[in-house]
Write a structure and sequence with these properties.
Length: about 240
C-alpha cells in the first residue's frame, strides 16, 4: 500500500481517516525479529502542545537509549503548526507529520520506537504507535500512562507486585496489557504497534523501568524533553 505524505493529511475528512486506518490495520503483524534480549536501542517518542494566538503548535521529541547501559544516545525534535483538527480516534493524523520529521533527523534508526500512547489498543487497532510503524519502517509499541477506553474491551486490575499484568481483551482478542512496572504503583498500558509481539513489549517495558518512575525511561525522558523544548520554543529558558 502506497503511503500518503503526512503533509497531505490536512485535506482528509474523518471518513477518509477511518478508511485509511482500516486498510492499514489489515497489514499489522505481531511477527518480527525482536525479543527483549535482542533490542539494543529503543527510542521514546512524545509530543506536547501549546497555543500561539490563533495557532496550535506542537513539538515532537525523540530520545534514543542504549538498552544495556541506559545511556542516552541521541535526542531530536521537530516543531510546527498543527493544521489537522482533533478527531477522537484519529490522533495519528495530527501527530505523524512531526513524528516523521523528528525521526528523519536521527543519525541511526533505533531497533524499536516506544510511544507515549497506544498501538492496537484502539477502536480500529490503529493508534499512533501502530500507524507510525508504516512511516518509520520499524517495530513500534505503545506504553501509555493512562488507560484508553475502547468500547467492549475490559481487564482486571493486575496484582501489586512488579511485573504483574492483566490482558485487555475485546471479543476474545487481546488489545494490550495493564502492566505493573513497580510494586504498588499505578499500571501502565502496553500494546503492540507493529512488527513486535506483546510479550516482547511487556518484557522491554519492565527492563527499561528504573526506580525513579513507573514509566519506562525512553518514554519518560521523551516526555520530559517535550516540556523542556516547549518552554524554549515559547521563549522561556
Amino acid at each position: 500500500m502506497e503511503m500518503m505524505n503526512p503533509k497531505a493529511f490536512s485535506g482528509l475528512t474523518e471518513a477518509d481517516c477511518i478508511a485509511v486506518q482500516r486498510q492499514l490495520a489489515a497489514l499489522l503483524s505481531d511477527r518480527g525479529p525482536l525479543t527483549a534480549r535482542t533490542v539494543r536501542t529503543a527510542a521514546g517518542v512524545d509530543l506536547a502542545y501549546w497555543r500561539e494566538g490563533e495557532e496550535e503548535r506542537a513539538v515532537c521529541c525523540i530520545v534514543v537509549l542504549d538498552c544495556e547501559t541506559g545511556q542516552v544516545l541521541e535526542k531530536r525534535h521537530a516543531a510546527g503548526t498543527v493544521s489537522f483538527p482533533y478527531l477522537p480516534g484519529c490522533l495519528a493524523f495530527r501527530e505523524l507529520p512531526l513524528v516523521v520529521e523528528a525521526a528523519a533527523q536521527l543519525s541511526a534508526p533505533p531497533d524499536i520506537y516506544l510511544f507515549d500512547g497506544n498501538g492496537i489498543l484502539h477502536p480500529r487497532k490503529m493508534g499512533l504507535a501502530a500507524h507510525a510503524s508504516f512511516y518509520l519502517d520499524a517495530p513500534t509499541a505503545g506504553i501509555a500512562k493512562h488507560y484508553f477506553r475502547v468500547e467492549g474491551a475490559s481487564f482486571t486490575e493486575p496484582g501489586q507486585e512488579a511485573g504483574s499484568w492483566s490482558d485487555i481483551v475485546k471479543d476474545g482478542s487481546v488489545l494490550g496489557r495493564a502492566l505493573r512496572t513497580r510494586r504498588g504503583v499505578k499500571p501502565v498500558y502496553v500494546s503492540m504497534g507493529n512488527r513486535v509481539d506483546l510479550d516482547t513489549v511487556t518484557a522491554l517495558a519492565l527492563h527499561l523501568t528504573d526506580g525513579e518512575s513507573r514509566i519506562p525511561r525512553p518514554t519518560r525522558l521523551a516526555d520530559l524533553e517535550t516540556h523542556a523544548q516547549r518552554r524554549i520554543l515559547q521563549g522561556g529558558v
